[in-house]
């Protein structure tokens, strides 16, 4: 060979900008609806424009991008869109802090983050991009809402909010810190104000049943949704109340425990409680107290049990005896009937309550098959878990008169029939799911399109007056929403009678915008919410995003899709068929202790780390002063721990392909991914090696055509490896979403190439095939490098996504020789190469002759030879 040829070094920056320029010049990823190929719609959860991309975004969008590019290479018409979930509270806070406007701040962030996304080279159809805060987007949401209002699916009622009495404003749950307003520090109160709701409860059963059809969703997510919807079957039972009051209706899932009722508990907001309080100042004061405190579910669950006797007496519907009626803080007005038959012998909350207020506790069920002595004991002074709701399947009734001996089902049926016959109760299915409260008293959101008229009431804004625009040029004082503070904005005329009227000043929950964006991407520019293109693309084939959205977002998303279906906008029931929830991105934390016991968290980028030979961190110093810092645990990247790694810095240092490669290599998509720069460097070395292998091959000129019949053993072996890799990678991408193992397989192929030094014509042909396969197999993950390497391998500038994904050739994978491990008494001593069809005697002979094995066999007699075909020869010797 002549003098060493000049190789082009790998320069990610120029490689990446060249590939990106080529894609945008060819509008390579703009999707259309006229292709004859099967469609594939790959959706990612849209980012909130907080200011800069974080590694969680990079991971999320890289997974989607790999799937999208792979699908395109396997013959699909792919849509991968992107947009911005642009309304929300952080913009208001940032605007106050930076003395700017939420709109300005948001649009600037979007511009910056868009360029960051583009630098990562995602195959996104940018022509479909939108921000949910733009009127062209939210006008459709407003129009849909007015329809829902006319249909009765949207309605208005009073509901409780967190009220800050100093700032005179409502607070979001996350603005209530330890029961106080985040800004004023005032004790937060509960207050009832009129709010808008969507009747998601009408769809509870359908949303539950639909889960059974979602085979491509993780079981864990479906379970969380089922629990959230919380279907329970029970009875409503009437208790008469002495003194001429209306009867009380309770909802119970345990009518079998009816004979154990020793009191009845009602919510503080229950009509009967209010009635009793009218003549009982002490009770009235107690009800006032109950209004203090936050409204979040977590708070209600954990608070101490408190109550007060109303003085009223309820009549037990079977025995006719009277029991007291108590107000209890754990009874929710919004669930069931707001009244509970208390069974302290078998319900833990009732037990705690009865113990505290010295109410009677009696046993009425027992386990039929206690697993031990303990489980056959019931106690009125100590709570026993095995008498709770968990064990309802294997119990029988005791101390229950005529019902003694019945099991749960038997008692349920007997009582249901009895009460239904007497008109004293009925079977009833309840859902834990509540209607979706969509009103927010915040400024930076979509205005709710309603006008209030003294004569006509709440009137939907007519279509020709939509959108109701949110003014963007505003000043925020941090307390009141600018549209609430501005009487001019509110003023309007009633669309029905023309009299002066006022606009609604609340805005929508931002979950509204993220409930239908999946559909809007399909129909850019459509005059209505969507057009017929929606049915071409929907349901989306893949949805990738964070597990933190497993419940609320995904439930609203499935609900809203059904609203659109019922409005004949789409004809599917579910919005997405497959869901992939990616794990967190985690990283090491570093800190220094302050003298007051608090910690100063230090970003890993500012720390020099010493590692042992296994890569474990053994010491760390602050680069700026060379002094040691403390090493904390490995945690989710976050501002509070200052352990975020900036994607942009990583892209600048290593190139987008290396960042993409590492995010896919370091962990399977569902698991946590620990960011560590040593790992990133490893990926960078691998890419560089592949780059050099291609460059060397290219420098030798065009490779001759491959003659499969003329290959020698080594050439056949490399070719076999190439096709095995193709087969594995295709399977890992397509069937398992196991990207890390796919990358590992290509790395192995590159290792095999490094060992293959054969400059013969067929040697180069086989190497060319291997390199082309490696470049195409990696293309979904490292599309820029693949774009450049494909050209280096002698092809014109091509859109690789339009090439078919490599197909394994079965004939190439027929091995004619095999490597077997040779063991002596179960210990590995060497390996041998044998023909695939070698007879057992020949294998035995080769094994005994293997030099290292022969050494171990010296002076021993072989007693037995065990051959595991294709794998092992074990020589049993003594
Ligand atoms: C008697 C009883 C005995 C109950 C027992 C439970 C165990 P799920 O499964 O969530 O539907 N309940 C009913 N309405 C309530 C409300 N508004 N606020 C708080 N608790 C309420 O739970 C239904 C059970 O929760 C009902 O069955 C009722 O207590 C309580 F050993 O009735 B049960
Ligand atoms: Zn009117």
From TrEMBL:
Short motif ('KMSKS' region): ranges: 636-640
Keyword field contains Nucleotide-binding: yes
Keywords, comma-separated and alphabetical: Aminoacyl-tRNA synthetase, ATP-binding, Cytoplasm, Ligase, Nucleotide-binding, Protein biosynthesis
Record's catalysed reaction(s): tRNA(Leu) + L-leucine + ATP = L-leucyl-tRNA(Leu) + AMP + diphosphate
EC number: 6.1.1.4
Domain Methionyl/Valyl/Leucyl/Isoleucyl-tRNA synthetase anticodon-binding stretches: 718-841
Chief location category: cytoplasm
MF-aspect GO terms: aminoacyl-tRNA deacylase activity; ATP binding; leucine-tRNA ligase activity
PROSITE patterns: AA_TRNA_LIGASE_I
Residue intervals of the Leucyl-tRNA synthetase editing domain: 226-419
Subcellular location: Cytoplasm
All residue ranges annotated as the Methionyl/Leucyl tRNA synthetase domain in the record: 44-176
Domain Aminoacyl-tRNA synthetase class Ia: 433-588
Chain positions recorded as ATP binding sites: 639
One GO cellular component term noted in the UniProt record for this chain: cytosol
One Gene Ontology term from the biological process aspect of the record: leucyl-tRNA aminoacylation
Motif ('HIGH' region): 47-57
This protein's record includes keyword Acyltransferase: no
HAMAP family noted in UniProt: Leu_tRNA_synth_B
Family the UniProt entry places it in: Belongs to the class-I aminoacyl-tRNA synthetase family.
PANTHER family recorded: LEUCINE--TRNA LIGASE, MITOCHONDRIAL, LEUCYL-TRNA SYNTHETASE
Protein name, as recorded: Leucine--tRNA ligase
Organism: Pseudoxanthomonas composti
Gene that this sequence comes from: leuS
């Amino acid at each position: 060979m002549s003098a060493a040829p000049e190789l082009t070094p790998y320069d990610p920056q120029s490689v990446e900008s060249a590939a990106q320029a080529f894609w945008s010049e060819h509008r390579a990823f703009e999707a259309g609806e006229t292709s004859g190929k099967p469609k594939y719609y790959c959706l990612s959860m849209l980012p909130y424009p907080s200011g800069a991309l974080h590694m969680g975004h990079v991971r999320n969008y890289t997974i989607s991008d790999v799937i999208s590019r792979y699908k395109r290479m396997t013959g699909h018409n792919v849509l991968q869109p992107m947009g911005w979930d642009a309304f929300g509270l952080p913009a208001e806070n940032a605007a106050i802090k930076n003395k700017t406007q939420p709109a300005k701040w948001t649009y600037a962030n979007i511009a910056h983050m868009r360029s960051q996304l583009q630098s990562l080279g995602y195959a996104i159809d940018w022509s479909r991009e939108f921000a949910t805060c733009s009127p062209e987007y939210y006008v459709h949401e407003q129009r849909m809402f007015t329809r829902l209002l006319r249909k009765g699916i949207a309605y208005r009622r009073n509901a409780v909010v967190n009220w800050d009495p100093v700032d005179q404003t409502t607070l979001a749950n996350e603005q209530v810190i330890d029961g106080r307003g985040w800004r004023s520090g005032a004790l937060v109160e509960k207050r009832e104000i009129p709010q808008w709701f969507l009747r998601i409860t009408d769809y509870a059963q359908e949303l539950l049943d639909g889960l059974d059809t979602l085979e491509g969703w993780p079981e864990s997510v479906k379970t969380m949704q089922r629990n959230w919807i919380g279907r329970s079957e029970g009875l409503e039972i009437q208790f008469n109340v002495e003194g001429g009051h209306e009867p009380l209706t309770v909802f119970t899932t345990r009518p079998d425990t009816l004979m154990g009722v020793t009191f009845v508990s009602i919510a503080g907001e229950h009509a009967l409680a209010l009635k009793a309080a009218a003549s009982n100042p002490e009770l009235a004061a107690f009800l006032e107290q109950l209004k203090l405190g936050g409204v979040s579910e977590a708070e209600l669950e954990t608070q101490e049990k408190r109550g007060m006797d109303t003085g009223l007496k309820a009549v037990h519907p079977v025995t006719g005896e009277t029991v007291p009626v108590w107000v209890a803080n754990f009874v929710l007005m919004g669930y069931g009937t707001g009244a509970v038959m208390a069974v302290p012998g078998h319900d833990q909350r009732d037990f705690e309550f009865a113990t505290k207020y010295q109410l009677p506790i009696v046993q009425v069920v027992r386990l039929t098959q206690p697993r031990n002595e303990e489980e056959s004991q019931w106690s009125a002074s100590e709570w026993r878990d095995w008498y709770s709701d968990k064990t309802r399947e294997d119990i029988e009734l005791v101390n229950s008169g005529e019902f003694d001996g019945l099991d749960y089902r038997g008692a349920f049926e007997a009582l249901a029939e009895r009460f239904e016959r007497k008109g004293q109760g009925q079977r009833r299915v309840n859902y834990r799911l509540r209607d979706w409260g969509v009103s927010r008293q915040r400024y930076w959101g979509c205005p709710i399109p309603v006008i209030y008229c003294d004569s006509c009431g709440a009137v939907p804004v007519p279509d020709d007056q939509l959108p109701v625009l949110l003014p963007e040029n505003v000043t925020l004082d941090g307390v009141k929403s600018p549209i609430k503070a501005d009487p001019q904005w509110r003023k309007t005329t009633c669309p029905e009678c023309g009299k002066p009227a006022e606009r609604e000043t609340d805005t929508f929950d931002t979950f509204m915008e993220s409930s239908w964006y999946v559909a809007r991407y399909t129909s850019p520019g459509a005059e209505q919410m969507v057009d017929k293109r929606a049915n071409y693309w929907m349901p989306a084939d893949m949805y990738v995003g964070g597990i933190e959205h497993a419940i609320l977002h995904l439930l609203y998303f499935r609900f809203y899709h059904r609203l659109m279906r019922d409005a004949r906008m789409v004809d599917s029931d579910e919005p997405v068929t497959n869901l992939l929830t990616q794990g967190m991105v985690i990283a090491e934390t570093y800190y220094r202790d302050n003298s007051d016991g608090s910690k100063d968290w230090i970003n890993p980028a500012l720390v020099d780390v010493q590692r042992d030979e296994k890569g474990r961190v053994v010491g760390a110093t602050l680069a700026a002063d060379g002094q040691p810092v403390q090493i904390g645990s490995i945690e989710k990247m976050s501002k509070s721990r200052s352990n975020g790694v900036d994607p942009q810095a990583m892209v600048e240092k290593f190139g987008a392909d290396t960042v993409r490669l590492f995010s896919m290599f370091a962990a399977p998509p569902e698991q946590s991914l620990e960011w560590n720069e040593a790992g990133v460097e490893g990926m960078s070395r691998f890419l560089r090696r592949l780059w050099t292998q291609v460059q060397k091959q290219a420098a030798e000129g065009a490779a001759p055509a491959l003659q499969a019949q003329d290959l020698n053993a080594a050439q056949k072996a490399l070719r076999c490896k190439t096709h095995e890799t193709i087969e594995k990678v295709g399977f890992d991408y397509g069937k398992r979403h196991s990207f890390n193992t796919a990358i590992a397989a290509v790395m192995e192929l590159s290792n095999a190439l490094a060992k293959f030094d054969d400059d013969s014509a067929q040697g180069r042909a086989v190497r060319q095939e291997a390199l082309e396969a490696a470049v195409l197999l990696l293309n979904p993950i490292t599309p820029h490098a693949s774009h450049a390497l494909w050209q280096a391998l002698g092809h014109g500038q091509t859109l690789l996504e339009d090439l078919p994904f490599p197909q394994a050739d079965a004939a190439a994978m027929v091995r004619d020789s095999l490597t077997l491990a040779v063991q002596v008494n179960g210990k590995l001593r060497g390996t041998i190469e044998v023909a695939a069809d070698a007879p057992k005697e020949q294998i035995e002979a080769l094994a005994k002759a293997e030099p290292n094995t022969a050494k171990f066999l010296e002076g021993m007699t072989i007693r037995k030879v065990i051959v595991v075909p294709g794998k092992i020869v074990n020589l049993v010797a003594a």
